[in-house]
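USER:
Working in pairs, take the chain set out below, taking as long as you need, and write a paragraph about the fold.
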Amino acid sequence: MTLNEQLTQDLKDAMKAKDKTKLNVVRMIKTALTNAKIQKGTDLSAEDKLQVLSTEMKQRKDSYAEFEKGGREDLMAELKAEMAIVEKYLPKQLNKAELSDLISETIQETGATSMKDMGKVMSNLMPKVKGRADGGQVNQIVKELLTNK
């Protein structure tokens, strides 16, 4: 089942179940995908769709952090539910151990020895983890591993 078919089916299911949160999130995702398709002028590739989904997730994570600072527990709970729905459409996220292994492997491939080589490592690494790991977390682990060399 393609992403669009899955979204359409989930939209129908959410309507039948009267699940407003899921309905709103699925509609937002479908709208974001449609807008990206219009902006690109052609059908979206799997990578383009992944980028749109990643952007949707990042927006929610950023909002969550802001609500956390403001002590808005009510909005945080709602966003947490939304993030769980968006996460369903993203590829399985890498855990910290898997991510560290992949980063170590990339550091060896690129021959990086210090923080000066961080750009080289990141440019080789990001396509491998696209959509499967948070960029901030990747950046942090790369810094830790390069400073310990």
Observations:
- The domain at 96-147 is CATH 1.10.10.410 (Arc Repressor Mutant, subunit A).
- The chain has a mean pLDDT of 89.
